[in-house]
Design goal:
3-stranded antiparallel beta sheet, 45% helix, single chain, 6% strand, 5 strands
């Protein structure tokens, strides 16, 4: 089966490489919304960073990004899917045109000088912000797959996934008083749209949701707020042709929400892009 990154690769935005520097935890000012007030998750309550929940989250994303729950098989994945982002590769869709691939290879080279990808750093700097392969072809895809045999490169992919996408999403979710499902909804939005404040970036999606509902930390109802957030997420996806299929929200996250499964407890059954998945 073809990789679903053909329709869901992360959105490029100019601030993506510096999103963590810019992404402070946003205060939850009172906004319009109704519903009973929910307390924030109790201190010590399992969050998405609980190892078992994190594994579920990564599998859910992989079902959309790779049409597979076997996310560990994606370290070696690389192709240009024709979306204007250059090469897309690895477990989270690092892109040569959006800076995160450059950051990843830089980290790997810091940890493993002389690795198969180190020689491509100058070319990755030149093509950043473009879809160009100049200086990367013909050897880069093969060298990426060769590097994926190195445990240090696999760890670097894990660490960059967490630094850029997973950790900031979980932090913001906790600050907003969200449980596991809400933190996952934030994480998936980070993966697809980036953490920036452009029109369809995560921060803009969150701001749009806040015009309709308050976060639990701001005195709102968790289900009501998450419905508003997913509405805003669907709107953002439909602004770009590559994201028109919103099933990763409609028949996955929204399904879990309407089932009342705010903790993402298995068993889980969902559909993405016409394919069915199960976690027991």
């Amino acid at each position: 089966m073809t990789h679903q990154r053909r329709t869901t690769s992360p959105r490029p935005d100019a601030s993506r490489r510096t999103a963590l520097a810019l992404l402070a935890v946003v205060a939850c000012a009172p906004m319009a919304g109704t519903g009973r007030a929910l307390a924030a998750p109790a201190p010590g309550a399992p969050g998405l960073d609980d190892p078992a929940k994190k594994e579920i989250a990564i599998q859910l994303v992989s079902s959309a990004e790779n049409s597979s729950l076997d996310w560990k098989a994606q370290y070696r994945y690389i192709e240009d899917i024709g979306d204007g982002r250059g090469y897309t590769a690895g477990i989270i869709g690092f892109c040569s045109g959006t800076g995160d691939m450059l950051d990843l290879v830089g980290l790997y080279t810091d940890r493993a000088p002389g690795n198969p990808l180190a020689a491509y750093l100058p070319a990755l700097r030149r093509v950043d912000g473009t879809d160009s392969h100049q200086g990367l072809d013909p050897g880069f895809p093969g060298d990426w797959r060769r590097a994926a045999l190195d445990g240090r490169f696999r760890r670097a992919q894990n660490d960059e996934r967490d630094r850029v996408y997973f950790d900031p999403a979980v932090r913001q979710g906790r600050a907003d008083g969200l449980g596991v499902l809400g933190q996952f909804a934030y994480y998936d939005a980070f993966v697809v749209h980036g953490g920036g404040g452009d029109r369809t970036g995560f921060r803009s999606i969150r701001r749009r949701a806040l015009t309709h509902a308050r976060t639990p930390a701001g005195g709102g109802d968790e289900v009501t707020y998450l419905d508003a957030f997913l509405d805003a997420r669907v709107w953002a996806m439909k602004q770009e042709e590559a994201h028109r299929d919103t099933s990763r929200v409609d028949t996955a996250q929204r399904l879990f929400l309407h089932e009342g499964n705010l903790r993402l407890d298995p068993p889980l059954d969902w559909r993405v892009y016409g394919d069915s998945y199960h976690i027991g």
